[in-house]
Amino acid sequence: MIRTTNRWLWHLVSVVIVGALMLGIYQASQSINYNWQWQRVLPFIVDTTPQEYRAQGDGTAVINPDNSITINFDYSDDAQHIAKYDERLVQQGDLVFEGDVLARSDQWTIGPVTLGLWVTLKISVLSLFFAIILGLVAGLMRISHNPVSKNLAFLYVEIIRGTPLLVQIFIVYFFLGTIFELERFTAGVVALSIFTGAYIAEIIRSGIQSIPPGQMEAARSLGMSYPKAMLYVILPQAFKRTLPPMAGQLITLIKDSSLVSVISITDLTKAGREVISGSFATFEVWFVVAGLYLVLTTSLSWGVQRIEKRLASSD
């Protein structure tokens, strides 16, 4: 009972500390004399602005029996017809002029920030898929007894891990992209896959080498070939051990994907910059962008924790 009480007390202390930090941030934001306008950010996430139907010329409004609107133009035999709407702003026989709002329809459209989030998610998933394949191959080559395979994998890992991702993106886009005629999105996926694959290769290598050599010897003594023993005995055990560092690398991949904005891929980061240039809501937009990245990484972290618990219970 005492331990439980102490635990709740420490939780309360944590809440107080976080609250004090938030209060300090709020007071600091007030001191910079910034006018916070969060409502200006919402349309860039989900735009609920009603669609307006405007008159295409001068004429007279006619309300038909089915409640549709017809505008008979003064100097043309053509007519403008509006069949469906949610709010009507003209009455029977009203004179309208070009540009007047005749009716409105409720609607919602996806804003640029949400579209950028979708691009970030798509490029991260594709890069993750190819990075795992590339990392698995390179990791197996690293522990191979073939000097050629081992040297090539070592060279790949050291070069990629020893150079900045931003430089690699430029090289892939401007050099390889020119040679192979790669689109921006494809170049971004290639650069992220190559970069992340090098780190995954080292994670897989360390995971395999952490398995006692007796596991391989036992599998071989049962008549398994080396590939089968690796596939059915070694890799499943290594997967459990490498799951936490693998999850950390995948979270890093999502955050690193923001760098593809330098080659004009409209991901979440670039969408945020474009919204700021039009709304001037600098702080609000960056806080929203950071929050969306946090949602992605937290969701991935939660999913990995669920997988870890499943694997732990299956032992």
Verbal overview:
By secondary structure, the chain is of the alpha+beta class. The chain folds into two domains: 49-109, OB fold (Dihydrolipoamide Acetyltransferase, E2P) (Beta Barrel); 112-314, MetI-like fold, CATH 1.10.3720. Helices cover 66% and strands 10% of the residues. It is built from ten helices and nine strands. It has helices at residues 2-31, 42-45, 112-142, 147-161, 165-180, 184-209, 213-221, 226-256, 268-279, 282-314, and strands at 46-47, 51-54, 59-63, 69-73, 79-82, 87-88, 95-96, 101-105, 109-110. The strands form three sheets. A four-stranded antiparallel β-sheet has the order 5-4-3-7, with no helix packed on it. A three-stranded antiparallel β-sheet has the order 2-8-6, with no helix packed on it. Strand 4 (69-73) and strand 5 (79-82) form a beta hairpin. Helix 4 (147-161) crosses helix 6 (184-209). The chain is elongated. The two termini are 32 Å apart.
What are the defining features of this structure?
alpha+beta; OB fold (Dihydrolipoamide Acetyltransferase, E2P); 9 strands; three-stranded antiparallel β-sheet; elongated
